[in-house]
Specification:
- With 433 residues, this protein is mainly beta.
- Helix content is 11%, strand content 45%.
- The chain has a 16-stranded antiparallel barrel with strand order 1-2-3-4-5-6-7-8-9-10-11-12-13-14-15-16.
- A hairpin with a 2-residue loop joins strand 1 and strand 2.
- GO terms for molecular function: porin activity.
- Keywords: Signal.
- It comes from Parvularcula marina.
- This is Porin.
């Protein structure tokens, strides 16, 4: 009973921190308090769970040697009440040099970095607190409150991949610096939000396993000090930038579902997994310094679908995402991306083939510089194609070694750098615990 009272007291402190005006600053203290709760409750029946992963990629890109590393550490502390409800706190620290400080509205290179933040940490640094949230789980489902991925990202399905960092889409490592394919419908990033997921198994699992989820984030960070500029965007200062320092998107709503079912086909089982999501966010009307004759920015909206089919040792699947990237509503599909792939498991050996394509009809590279007609009215576009083949071997204790060959072709206007392509041979070593 004493542990329960202590847990309630810690939960109250965490919620008070999250209610403050500058909730992001309060999250670190809230997270520490909640971990203290976890330590107090973590006796024999309530251990603290620690997990993580590390990947290191080295390779040769058009004759040039490159390397990248990614690491993640997760800590979760829980306490189960007498009524069976599980209360907990979780946090994660990530080291990732390729992750921008704010999430991309569409493609990582072609769109504004106007989405939610990646976490808490020095801007431009490689190590940051990615997540810090409270959660409750029980017969009602689950509720998450704090800095965490939204429902659309958590329930996403993309093309199968045997690697942790390199891939044709939504990669952690891109040694070519050209892969603009992203099919996960994630605009809110790790911004402070609340997520609710009802219990899985609608109608008692009669039609298969169905998981629903909704998320709400009150507001995303602003574009001050040119932080919303694309990664390879226009860098010179300008008094006539179409993107203001106070520009932001707010009231981010996400709705997503994941469905899985299995069917007996001959001597094996066919497993079907599919996902769908829809994300909207309102534009802050006070943030744009220059309002051109034709509106440039508008409310954000995006939708995505994914499907995987697994039969025996073979998995095939793909996904797509369409979004207006936060531009005006006159053109809904400013960014359209899709991917497809197949993997084969043969004992400890795994093989894969994958392809991704992204078409950004209005490349945002010049939107943070001078207000040129080309930038405002969508005459600059970028199309990216990515192909990858690879093989990996799985050892004991979560260790995997693999090799992949990747080719990326980026077609874009001369005003934003011209067309480029790159071929890469990469080696990835990873461990998950």
């Amino acid at each position: 009973m004493r542990a329960l009272h202590k847990g309630v007291k810690m939960m109250r402190k965490c919620l008070m921190a999250l209610r403050r005006k500058h909730a992001l600053n309060g999250l670190a203290g809230a997270f520490v308090s909640c971990l203290a709760l976890g330590v107090a409750a973590a006796q024999d029946e309530n251990p603290i769970e620690v997990s993580g992963e590390l990947s290191v990629v080295t390779g040769v890109v058009d004759g040039e040697t490159k390397a990248d590393a990614n690491a993640e550490l997760n800590v979760t502390a829980t306490h189960i009440l007498n009524n069976g409800v599980e209360l907990g706190a979780s946090g994660s620290v990530r080291a990732d040099a390729d992750r921008p400080s704010q999430y991309y509205a569409a493609g990582r290179y072609s769109s504004l970095l106007s989405g939610g933040d990646r976490g808490v940490g020095p801007e431009g640094g490689d190590v940051f607190l990615e997540g810090a949230y409270l959660f409750a789980r029980g017969g009602f489902g689950s509720i998450h409150l704090g800095k965490d991925a939204g429902a659309a990202s958590r329930l996403a399905v993309t093309s199968p991949n045997i690697f942790r960092a390199v891939g044709v889409n939504d990669w952690k490592t891109d040694l070519t610096g050209l892969n603009d394919v992203h099919t996960i419908n994630d605009f809110s990033g790790q911004s402070t939000k609340i997520t609710y997921m009802p219990p899985p198994g609608f109608l008692g699992g009669l039609i298969g396993q169905l998981q629903l989820g909704v998320s709400y984030a009150p507001e995303l960070d602003n574009c001050g000090d040119r932080r919303c500029a694309p990664e390879d965007g226009f860098g010179a200062p300008s008094d006539v930038s179409l993107l203001g320092a106070n520009q932001r998107w707010q009231d981010v709503l996400e709705a997503a579902l994941y469905y899985q079912n299995g069917f007996k086909v001959r001597d094996d089982r066919l497993t079907v997994g599919l996902s769908a999501s829809y994300v909207t966010a309102d534009k802050d009307e006070s943030g744009q310094p220059v309002e051109p004759v034709v509106p440039v920015f508008g409310d954000y909206k995006g939708y995505a679908f994914g499907l995987n089919l697994a039969y025996g040792n073979v998995t095939f699947g793909g996904s797509m995402k369409s979004t207006n990237a936060g531009f005006d509503e006159n053109r809904d599909e400013d960014y359209l991306a899709f991917d497809a792939g197949v993997t084969l498991e043969a004992g400890e050996w795994n093989f894969m083939l994958g392809y991704g394509n992204a078409d950004a009809e209005r490349d945002a590279t010049l939107l943070v510089g001078p207000a040129t007609p080309d930038a405002a009215f969508g005459r600059l576009d970028r199309e990216t194609q990515t192909a990858q083949a690879g093989v990996s071997y799985v050892f004991d204790h979560g260790v995997t070694l693999g090799a992949a060959a990747q080719f990326v072709d980026s077609q874009r206007d001369e005003a934003i750098g011209g067309s480029e392509n790159a071929a890469a041979v990469m080696f990835e070593s990873s461990i998950k615990f």
